[in-house]
Design brief:
Number of domains of chain B: 3
Structural class of chain B: mainly alpha
CATH topology of the largest domain in chain A: Rossmann fold
Bound molecules: adenosine-5'-triphosphate, magnesium ion
CATH class of the largest domain in chain A: Alpha Beta
Number of strands of chain A: 10
Order of helices and strands of chain B: HHEEHHHHHHHHHHEHHHHHEHHHH
Number of domains of chain A: 2
Radius of gyration of chain A: 17 Å
Number of strands of chain B: 4
Structural class of chain A: alpha/beta
Number of helices of chain A: 10
Oligomer: heterodimer
Distance between the termini of chain A: 34 Å
Radius of gyration of chain B: 26 Å
Strand content of chain B: under 5%
Chain lengths: 243, 486
């Protein structure tokens, strides 16, 4: 077994007095796609944000690439080459597509040499972005914005890609397209992906490893196929979610 | 039934622009204006032999009400809902102007024609004395034609202004220099408010810090303007960081309140720290700048050295070019910074702070650099203001100044360099032009602001210029933005 790229031990996060994460343990191994599924308000976004350091974990430990990042400043954590595509896309609306991509490249210290080839790769993955490169981010369609958010995260050449609900509000066809890109990146370049999804069926089929979160706790874990086969998962997360 | 409903709907749609409704609406506005004008305009106190007397001014009210009526009518007929014969005429006129502009070939031709005109005028001047400074207009115009960029026209006009026909000492000092000070302040604040999106209501504090730094350094240590200028900028930048730290976690309204208080604190300190700042009496006798050691005085100064006849105009023109260069440097630095990671981080922070964090941008540093660089430009402008006036007091640094500078940035379009310059020209230049109207110029000022907000709610120049574009697609990107897709 390879050493995990990202590991969380007993992580607890609070919003004031409200506890959002209640002792989370999980591992993401290098080169795998891990996913976390759970109901609304379970704490999935909080988990992603805690990894990035805002809000901070009150208890527990987060390790990335052999380094303890629990108390590291957010921008330093990101500069260890973690790219985060936050919930709700959050692209820069007044900047053009190209400028948005340029912002993503800030994480990469060798950006001056690699920008052109990284840009080319982003346009290969999402050809629509090439045609829209001079357009302002805020005027893209929802699906295009999501593609831009992922492409922007990739421009930093991350070791770990955190994706928070990339399928939010998208048509099934686009969702499949985006998931296909994630699979391809993982297979071709060995990119490690940690994915939060409402769309449990797609996510579990795609992922090597899945976690189920309920009320700020991991209640179940296993390979994607294992979880998909379990009766309680099918009952709780897959009714009507299959397409 | 259905038919009748559509008919009334159509009637309802076209109604607001019909002449009758427009007149009725204008009349309502006039009545409101009349009610408002009564307590404000109706009586004026006049000094009589023994006591204060009242003088009724029904004429003023009549003019005001008539103006409101006409203005409202014009808005109704020409405003956003263009229709009816007048509206069509207006639209046709507009499209005709656009078509003529395109037919003659856009900016290149317009600038070319202006260039020829300027050269012809210059040639005529040569018959008497060689006017070498006509080149100040001709060279930028030529570059403008070459690069197809109207910005060079503005630069040419600004360079040429002191030598333009009819430019008197009064005009250079009270129009040219003043407008340029506010262009510079606007560009400085634009870094903080326009680019970084941090609402700063106390910008005048840095202007004051710059002015007092120069005045005190020059008087206490006898340092020259050119040594004090960078020092004043650095001191102001330090104050910018000092303000930045406590407000790091504040946004929007809260930030505005704290910066407002900061501006007032600086002013109150200036008033009360008598021993250092001279309190309300201010500081006078602030040294004038020199040109490589040459003073602008009657004997042994600039005029003697170049064998010219001494006039005080030389000093004014010198000051004009100092502030022009300072403003251009501000612009140049800002445009450069926008292309560097720090400048892009400012704009990204304005757009979305959370996204910035997740891209590894250090929000603390980004905010502090925005505050300090904006403050530095304010400090430069302040030092210039002190040397130009020769006298400063806390009265020059009230909240009103902050408000004007902020208005310039907002009206200019939040982040647009050209927009800020145009707004400064219109607001400061405009109020100077209307000086004869005395207090009513504030009214003109207000009306102009309302007009901009009605017709261009995002500022005079609302489009943001991208900092990067791939060469082959540049034009497509630009076109899309113009058509409103972008
Ligand atoms: N800034 C905040 N302040 C206070 N409470 C918060 C804050 N953000 C989230 N919470 C609370 O923490 C809990 C977990 O929220 P979180 O956003 O992590 O859920 P989620 O699993 O991502 O849900 P969804 O699937 O709807 O996105 C919720 O009960 C939420 O109300
Ligand atoms: Mg969420």
């Amino acid at each position: 077994m390879t050493r995990p790229l990202l590991s969380l031990r007993g992580v607890e996060t609070f919003y004031g007095k409200v506890q959002a994460l209640r002792g989370v343990d999980l591992d993401v191994r290098a080169g795998e796609i891990a996913t976390i599924i759970g109901a609304n308000g379970a704490g999935k976004t909080t988990l992603m944000m805690t990894i990035c350091g805002t809000p901070r974990a009150r208890h527990g430990q987060i390790e990335f690439d052999g380094q303890d990042i629990t108390r590291l400043a957010t921008h330093r954590i990101m500069h260890l080459r973690i790219a985060h595509s936050p919930e709700g896309r959050r692209i820069f609306p007044r900047m053009t597509v190209l400028e948005n991509l340029q912002m993503g490249a800030l994480l990469n210290p060798e950006r001056d040499q690699t920008f052109d080839s990284d840009l080319k790769r982003a346009f290969e993955l999402f050809p629509i972005l090439e045609r829209r490169q001079g357009q302002r981010g805020g005027t893209l369609s929802g699906g295009e914005q999501q593609m831009l958010a992922i492409a922007r995260a990739l421009m930093g050449r991350p070791k770990l890609l955190l994706l928070d609900e990339p399928s939010l509000g998208l048509a099934p066809l686009i969702v499949r397209q985006i998931f296909e890109v994630i699979r391809e990146l993982n297979a071709r370049e060995g990119l490690t992906v940690f994915l939060v999804e409402q769309n449990a069926y797609h996510a579990l089929r795609l992922a090597h490893r899945g976690y189920v979160m309920v009320n700020g706790k991991i209640t179940l874990s296993g390979t994607g196929a294992e979880l998909l086969a379990r009766e309680e998962i099918r009952a709780a997360y897959l009714e009507g979610g299959r397409h | 039934m259905a038919k009748a409903a559509t008919a009334t709907m159509q009637a309802g749609d076209s109604e607001p622009t019909s002449l009758g409704a427009a007149l009725a609406d204008a009349a309502t506005a006039a009545v409101i204006a009349l009610l408002l004008a009564m307590p404000i305009l109706a009586y004026r106190s006049v000094e009589q032999a023994v006591s204060l007397g009242m003088e009724a001014r029904w004429g003023a009210i009549a003019i005001g009400v008539a103006a409101v009526f006409a203005g409202r009518l014009a808005i109704n007929l020409l405003g956003p809902r263009l229709s009816g014969p007048v509206g069509e005429l207006f639209a046709a006129l507009k499209s005709a102007i656009v078509r003529v502009f395109h037919a003659i070939g856009g900016w290149r031709t317009v600038l070319g024609m202006l260039l020829m005109l300027a050269m012809a005028a210059s040639g005529a001047g040569k018959l008497s004395t060689p006017r070498w400074f006509d080149l100040l207009l001709i060279v930028p115009l030529a570059i403008g034609v070459w690069r197809r960029s109207p910005a060079w026209l503005f630069l040419g006009l600004a360079l040429f202004f002191p030598f333009a026909p009819g430019a008197s000492r009064y005009w250079i000092e009270n129009f040219g220099i003043l407008v340029l000070i506010y262009v510079m302040l606007g560009w400085g604040l634009n870094v903080v408010v326009g680019l970084a999106g941090l609402l700063d209501l106390g910008y005048v504090a840095f202007y004051a810090v710059g002015a007092y730094s120069y005045a005190l350094l020059a008087q206490t240590f006898g340092l020259s303007f050119w040594i004090c200028l960078p020092l004043a900028g650095i001191l102001a930048a330090l104050w910018g960081v000092l303000l930045g730290f406590p407000v790091l976690r504040l946004r929007g309204d809260y930030l505005a309140i704290v910066t407002l208080a900061f501006g007032e604190i600086i002013r109150v300190v200036l008033i009360n720290w008598q021993s250092l700042t001279g309190g309300p009496n201010g500081i006078s006798g602030i040294p004038r700048p020199t040109l490589f050691g040459l003073e602008f005085k009657a004997d042994g100064g600039f005029a003697d050295y170049f064998g010219l006849e001494h006039t005080s105009l030389h000093r004014i023109i010198f000051l004009y070019y100092i502030i022009l260069v300072l403003a251009l440097v501000t612009n140049w630095v800002t445009v450069r910074l926008r292309r560097l990671p720090v400048g892009r981080a400012w704009e990204a922070m304005r757009e979305d702070e959370i996204a910035c964090r997740s891209l590894g941008i250090n929000i603390t540093n980004t905010k502090l650099t925005a505050f300090s660089i904006g403050a530095m430009f304010g400090g430069f402008a302040g030092a210039f203001f002190a040397t130009k006036q020769g006298f400063i007091s806390p009265e020059s640094f009230t909240f009103w100044e902050s408000a004007i500078i902020l208005a310039i940035v907002v009206l200019g379009g939040m982040g647009s360099q050209v927009g800020v310059a145009v707004a400064a020209l219109v607001m400061i230049g405009g109020t100077e032009l209307f000086r004869e109207l005395e207090i009513y110029r504030m009214l003109v000022f207000g009306v102009a602001m309302v007009a901009v907000m009605v017709w261009r709610p995002r500022g005079v120049v609302s489009g943001r210029v991208p900092t990067i574009a791939l060469k082959e697609t540049r034009r497509i990107g630009g076109d899309l933005v113009k058509e409103g897709h972008g």
